Amino acid sequence: MINMTYAVYTESLTRTFGDIVAVDRLNLRVNRGEIYGFLGPNGAGKTTTIRMLCGILAPTAGRGRVLDYDVVAEAEQIKKRIGYMSQKFSLYEDLTVAENVDFYASIYGLTGSVKRERGEDIFRTAGLAGRTGQLAGTLSGGQKQRLALGCALVHRPELLFLDEPTAGVDPLSRRDFWGLLYELAAAGTTILVTTHYMDEAEHCNRLGFIYGGKLIAEGKPDALKASSAGAVYKITPASVGAAYAALLQGLPGATISILGNNVHVSGVGVDEVTLARVLSNAGVAYAALEPAKPSLEDLFVMFIGQEGRA
User: Fold this and answer.
1) DSSP assignment string, 96-118
2) Fewer CB within 10 A of the end CB, N or C, for the chain?
3) Rounded to whole angstroms, how far apart are CA atoms 22 and 138?
4) Is 11 helix (H, G, I), strand (E, B) or coil?
């Protein structure tokens, strides 16, 4: 029995391309009104999953419902009620800002005064009221991002799919963009977003980690960090590259990641004595070696590493 309280619900959702399994028996639950972060490396199956949920791509096996509609039998109903924004922004660069919004409004069946009012709302919300006659192709990355989001929202969808929407955008624009997402979520819009930025993932209500088409971990950010197995150690070496290489060679089963000027290490059997010995044997000097709270980036590397080894 499918629980209709979910905005997204899948059971063993699968998609293959020949012998390649892109999405493998995925069981996904997204609550209404939440921001759900869908994380995974390139090729993990994130975009394929979103395309199935949007009714663009039919699953090979399994089933799914979006806003209570079946992703296969009722795909057209889904498309009317969702918004989708890809990392390429889905804009027509040879059209003006106003023409892009007008085009997308027409696709969603908006006409007359409703179309005009929605357009004005989008220009104001996106901070583009003074640029309506400017070609979309001449906008900055942050402006294109806000315009693309506006086009995805012009019909006021209940559910918004965002596929790496902040890729290649400067930090200030990313912050402003997420401010808009918080406002949307507070107003009741459900958001499923993929991102490679762990600072963005921290602000999602829940996270799902996907690898090899499988959901390998899921939960609230703080709960995931609290439940991580094994201690995490932070090393501040004289040479990050030398420390990373030494640890890879000396601790082949450990999870190792670089965060700024530090190296984080975790895994079964990893402790301060072992780390100090490996670094000393390799002649790597360091200013600090201490326990650290796991970050989402640590978890990301840890989950992917564990699954890859399995």
Assistant:
1) BHHHHHHHHHHHTT--HHHHHHH
2) N
3) 36
4) strand
Q: Which residue type, as a one-letter code, is found at position 188?
A: G
DSSP state of 135: B
CATH 1.10.3210.10 for domain 6-224 = no
Strand partners, 191: 35, 160
**For the structural domain made of 229-293, what CATH number should be given?**
3.30.70.100
The alpha-helical segments, DSSP class H, found in the chain are 46-53, 75-81, 97-107, 112-125, 141-153, 171-186, 198-201, 221-226, 240-250, 272-281, 296-309
**Residue ranges per domain, the chain?**
6-224, 229-293
CA separation, residue 71 to residues 49, 173, 260 (Å): 11, 33, 42
Q: Tokens for 45?
A: 């199956």
For the chain, what is the total number of helices (H) and then of strands (E)?
A: 11, 15
- In this structure, the chain runs to a length of 310
Question: 144-182, pLDDT tens digit by residue?
Answer: 989 999 999 999 999 999 998 888 788 888 888 899 899
CA distances from 37 to 31, 180, 221, 249, 257 (A): 12, 16, 10, 33, 21
User: Are the C-beta atoms of 64 and 53 separated by less than 8 Å?
Assistant: yes
* CA gap 275, 69 in Å, rounded: 53
Report the phi/psi class of residue 21: left, alpha or beta, with left for phi > 0 and alpha for psi in -120 to 50. beta
As a whole number of angstroms, the distance between CA 300 and CA 199 comes to: 12
What separation in angstroms does the CA of 95 have from each of 91, 135, 168? 8, 5, 22
pLDDT digits 0-9 by tens, 64-117: 999 999 999 999 999 999 999 987 767 899 999 999 999 999 999 999 999 999
